[in-house]
């Protein structure tokens, strides 16, 4: 479903301080570029400190992908391609995330929610953006990938 598209692959969380700005900006970017062959692949993850603490008070990432999708649709009016909950670090990390971590970085560990990878139409990782890097700050990279790759 992503062949030939420029894609942001991102680990997401529903209850994180970075959730509002990331979902809001990702929604805007998706609306702007979707018709040009752009997509967002979102992978829920609650592998990080705050989510582990939230387990104690029962505020963790919802277990069911349908509940997560419903949250994103209701709160942000966005419908990203949402995948099953994954681990992004450690021995049980999803194979896609193991591969992503090995690309474009001096440190392969995912530091927090909303680490974003920009993948070309050819399936090459062309950018990695940390959790505090807002999606709109790298729209030039997205545009460049869309423009260059459309010449294939």
TrEMBL record:
It comes from Pristionchus entomophagus. This is Glutathione peroxidase. Coiled coil: none annotated. The keyword Oxidoreductase applies. Pfam families: GSHPx. Belongs to the glutathione peroxidase family. One of its GO terms (molecular function) is peroxidase activity. The lineage of its organism: Eukaryota, Metazoa, Ecdysozoa, Nematoda, Chromadorea. GO terms for biological process: response to oxidative stress. It comes from the Eukaryota. Keywords: Oxidoreductase, Peroxidase. InterPro entries: Glutathione_peroxidase, GPX_AS, Thioredoxin-like_sf. The active site is at residue 16.
């Amino acid at each position: 479903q992503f062949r030939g598209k420029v894609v942001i692959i991102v680990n997401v969380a529903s209850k994180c301080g970075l959730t509002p700005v990331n979902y809001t900006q990702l929604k805007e970017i998706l609306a702007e570029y979707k018709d040009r062959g752009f997509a967002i692949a979102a992978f829920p993850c609650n592998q990080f400190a705050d989510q582990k603490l939230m387990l104690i008070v029962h505020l963790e990432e919802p277990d069911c992908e349908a509940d997560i999708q419903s949250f994103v649709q209701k709160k942000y009016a966005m419908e990203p391609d949402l995948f099953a909950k994954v681990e992004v670090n450690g021995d049980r990390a999803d194979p896609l995330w193991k591969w992503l971590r090995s690309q474009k970085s001096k440190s392969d560990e995912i530091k927090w929610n909303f680490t974003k990878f920009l993948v070309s139409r050819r399936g090459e990782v062309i950018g990695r953006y940390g959790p505090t890097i807002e999606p709109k700050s790298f729209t030039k990279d997205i545009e460049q990938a869309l423009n260059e790759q459309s010449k294939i």
